[in-house]
Each structure stands twice: as structure tokens, then as C-alpha cells.
Amino acid sequence: MQKNVGTADKIIRVTFGISFLALGILKIFGSVWSVLFSILGIEILVVAAIGYSPLYHVLGVSSLEPRLTVEEEVDNWTTGVPDSER
Description:
Layout: H1 7-26, H2 31-50, H3 54-59
Keywords: Membrane, Transmembrane, Transmembrane helix
Transmembrane segments: 12-29, 35-59
Domain Inner membrane protein YgaP-like transmembrane: 1-63
């Protein structure tokens, strides 16, 4: 189970998860809707907590930030000329 949920995605999921869970607990809508909102809120919070989304896996999507790698070393670094010296 490889993680496929990035940091920004987790923040959004926590926000919506808490909102849906609150809608479910407060029973603003009917009882059926309250149960559905509660289940949806819990599912969203679990995905945010573990960092893995089965739906993302099925769709082949990942919101993780790409890892930066160094492919070759650069021997000579050049610097630009400061504006004050132009």
C-alpha cells in the first residue's frame, strides 16, 4: 500500500471530513442524510490520516509532490552579475 495522498490534499480532506462529520452528528438534515454524511466524513478523515486513497489507486492518480533527484553533478557553478555592477 503505497501512499498517494499529498499534503495539500490531506489538508483539504481534513477540512471537508470534519465538516461532513459535523453535519452528520448535528443531524441538520434527515436521519438518512446524517448517517451518510457521518460515514463520508469518517472515510475522508481516514484517507487523510493514512495517506492512501483506494480510489486514487484504481484511477492511477497521486497527489504526492514529485521527489527531486540530482541526475548529474555540475562542476562549474556560475553566478549572475548583481544589478549594482551593471
